Amino acid sequence: MTKHALITGITGQDGAYLAKLLLEKGYRVHGLVARRSSDTRWRLRELGIESDIVFLDGDLSDGTALQRAVVKARPDEIYNLAAQSFVATSWDQPITTGIVDGLGVTHLLEAIRQFSPETRFYQASTSEMFGLIRADRQDENTPFYPRSPYGVAKLYGHWITVNYRESFGLHASSGILFNHESPLRGIEFVTRKVTDAAARIKLGRQRELRLGNIDAKRDWGFAGDYVEAMWLMLQQDKADDYVVATGVTTTVRDMCRIAFECLELDYRDYVVIDPAYFRPAEVDVLLGNPAKAERVLGWQPKTSLENLIRMMVEADLRRVAKE
């Protein structure tokens, strides 16, 4: 029998890659989309899958809409990827972030509990929940200390998922994903900001790139690899939480170097440190330990940072050249 999946946030980077993966596995894919005046489906078109998706109206702030979506889709699996996911914006919109990234998860879990308790649920947690880190490498047992409204809201979403799993027996898992990037990443995120700027500078469309703390360290992987871990979690007999990461940390400075070297440029000639881009509460280092995901799920990242950045630079170079 054909499996049905419902993906919230299907128009985002992870939603698009996950939808492609599930379609390749023979799923009927339903996508929850909020009505917007701007074009939000361009990533699905980029992957050539827009026409294969069944779209349902709704967003995480509307519990009734989520109930309708669950009843209509009758999903075997739900992947909750929708979020206000930009850390800097969460400082400007802390209440909206709390409603969508925190309370919205409860709306969705309640819809499952009441209308489809056999549905398996995936919650997109984040390494930003670790924040002020308590261990050199963060795993599933590392204490959380979020340093932004985004991290705090996501932590609520994470713990309410654990509570519904333990209290109601739902097959509800959380993936604590470290930074994962791709050519489909939003331009507001630092990796795309860097690769887009490198392309524009190479083509003479831009003169400099302004950044904040370029000595911050992150564990970066490819989103196309990470969505496979999401799927694997929901194929397990027992629901659980998993860190998904590469286990390698790199500074923003080195990421800039790699991106500019792809175009035979020296980042030091173009990057300008601007205090306006520093966070109110910085997270200096994030480094994941994916040992549990490797052991239990059999998952490992396939794409190196160098290949990922090159992929993004080449995509941005093509995109900018067409403008």
Structural descriptors:
single chain; 323 residues; alpha/beta; Rossmann fold; UDP-galactose 4-epimerase, domain 1; 2 domains; seven-stranded parallel sheet; two-stranded parallel sheet; 13 strands; 15% strand
* Main beta-sheet annotation: 7 strands, parallel
The number of distinct helices, counting runs of at least 4 residues, comes to 11
CATH fold group of the largest domain: Rossmann fold
Number of structural units classed as domains: 2
Radius of gyration: 19 Å
Strand content: 15-25%
Percent helix among the residues?
40-55%
Number of separate strands: 13
Shape: globular
**CATH architecture name of the largest domain:** 3-Layer(aba) Sandwich
Any idea what the CATH superfamily of the largest domain is called?
Answer: NAD(P)-binding Rossmann-like Domain
- The CATH class name of the largest domain reads Alpha Beta
List low-pLDDT spans.
none
| Strand order in the sheet with the most strands | 3-2-1-4-5-6-11
Q: Could you tell me the mean pLDDT?
A: 95
Notes on the protein architecture:
- With 323 residues, the protein is of the alpha/beta class.
- The chain has 2 domains: 4-180 and 221-244, Rossmann fold; 186-219 and 249-286 and 303-321, UDP-galactose 4-epimerase, domain 1 (Alpha-Beta Complex), CATH 3.90.25.
- It has 11 helices and 13 strands.
- It has helices at residues 13-24, 42-46, 63-73, 87-92, 94-115, 149-168, 190-202, 223-233, 252-261, 291-297, 305-322, and strands at 4-8, 28-33, 54-57, 77-80, 120-126, 172-177, 180-181, 209-211, 217-218, 221-222, 241-244, 250-251, 271-273.
- The termini are far apart.
- The mean pLDDT is 95.
